Amino acid sequence: MKTKPILILILMLTMLAQAACAPSTNVCPTATSDTKLLTNSENGYCLLYPAEASADTPGLVAINPITGAGDMPGEGWVYIQVQDAAGRTAAQIADEAIATVDPGFDIIRTEIEVDGGQAIVLDGLPGQDSNRMVMIVRNDRLYTLIFMPWYPGTGQITPLEHLYETIMGSIHFLPPV
To answer: What is the pLDDT of residues 112-161, one digit of tens each?
Structure first.
């Protein structure tokens, strides 16, 4: 007779311990002296970016922003697009993007992990500027991060590569609003 209450107590303590050890899914990263926090609750993400960059325009983080007229927001930037994934994975969407390009382009497709899930990096897609595109699907939303102008292979970490590393190492996806 005494074993039933003890078993219930053990079960409850086990459940509490598991809940305490589980990672929190709604915690954004914390800004530091070298980074700033960007939170977009409507589109379901938060991330860190270098303190010297600017994030005054929704979905855009620019390095050395240009305030005058022109088609370039700065020396380098990332543009974050969010749209319905329509039940597709990041890999499927990346494959669709590659399939639309002529075979003569040297497109490099890399799979990485971002915020505990799959992301696909595409280098070499044709566009107005050389770019690195990262496709991530979370909560049936497609997050496309476009880093421009992307010129790899300089041998030194450029400010845009630093922006890429900072964002990819800190981006966190929030539940849909």
So the answer is: 999 999 999 999 998 888 899 999 999 999 999 999 998 876 677 889 99
Domain boundaries, the chain: 26-173
Q: What is the pLDDT of residues 88-117, one digit of tens each?
A: 999 999 999 999 998 888 899 999 999 999
Q: Say whether pTM exceeds 0.85.
A: no
Does CATH number 3.40.1000 belong to domain 26-173?
Answer: yes
Long-range contacts (CB closer than 8 Å, 24 or more residues apart) made by 145-153: 145/78, 145/79, 145/80, 146/78, 146/79, 146/80, 146/81, 147/76, 147/77, 147/78, 148/76, 148/77, 148/78, 148/79, 149/76, 150/123, 152/123
